[in-house]
Amino acid sequence: MLVDTSHPGNIGAVARAMKNMGILELVLVKPREFPHPEATARASGADDVLQRARVVETLAEAVADCGLVLATTARTREQYFRVIEPREAAGRIIEEARAGSGAVAVVFGTERFGLSNEHLLAAHALLRIPANPDYESLNIAMAAQLIAYEIRMAWHTPGTGTVATREAPLATPAQMDMFFTHLEEVMHEADFRDRTQSGTHLMARIRRMFNRAELDANEVNILRGILSAVQNRRRRAGEGK
């Protein structure tokens, strides 16, 4: 998935990198210019990837039905995120594919600034390429090629991603968003809010915490059931006064 891509040539170059490695599903979030002749030219024969690309307005829409979501980053982020490298990420991607846990999203940000902190809140982990620390500059097509190569190698490596079928698929970002909305509602009703002096964004930290846990759909339903029970108990208590 490419978010807010400014140069159409980069879309074509990423499409080419994907097709080289047998990955054909491209999602574009609010690209500045697409379709575009330069995207087609840079695709160098990967026109079919461009033609089937899905264009959406928001990242939330793009990942709504996905299972595992990995967000790429070139920067060292605060410790609240789990950070993995391409080889480990590729193993996880193949694992999820073979477990039938739904689509996996690898998300790339803008050419200049990458993904915003808000975008990262949808991710289970960050994917970082361990480049030369003195010169970490990779263009988006280079990064996509490296990650796509690792995914292909993982797919063809015996034993990679061999796991038992999940009891339930990972909760989708859409399901997680409903859970977070429900949780925030209960927190508000209970007058629970961030009272630290640091001004930490409490819900952002809570989102990162639960995303690291990689909850499945059943677990999210259990948690929402608990929240509903708390709300019902508070309402009955209020009616009895």
The CATH topology assignment of the largest domain is: Alpha/beta knot
Rg for CA atoms: 20 Å
Give the strand order of the largest sheet, numbering strands 1, 2, ... along the chain: 5-7-4-6
SSE string, helix = H, strand = E? EHEHHEHEEHEHEHHHH
Shape: elongated
In CATH, the architecture of the largest domain is 3-Layer(aba) Sandwich
Q: Whole-Å distance between the termini?
A: 53 Å
Class by helix and strand content? Answer: alpha/beta
User: Which spans have pLDDT < 50 for at least 5 consecutive residues?
Assistant: none
What's the CATH class label of the largest domain? Alpha Beta
Strand content: 5-15%
The count of DSSP E runs of length 2 or more, i.e. the number of strands, is 7
Q: Please, could you describe this protein's structure?
A:
- By secondary structure, this protein is α/β, with parallel strands linked by helices.
- The protein folds into 2 domains: 2-155, Alpha/beta knot (3-Layer(aba) Sandwich); 173-239, Helicase, Ruva Protein, domain 3 (Orthogonal Bundle), CATH 1.10.8.590.
- 48% of the residues lie in helices and 8% in strands.
- The protein has 10 helices and 7 strands.
- It has helices at 8-20, 37-43, 47-51, 59-63, 86-99, 117-120, 140-155, 173-189, 202-213, 217-239, and strands at 2-3, 27-29, 54-56, 69-72, 83-84, 105-107, 125-127.
- It has a 4-stranded parallel β-sheet. Strands 1-2-3 form a 3-stranded parallel β-sheet.
- The radius of gyration is 20 Å and the shape is elongated.
- The termini are far apart.
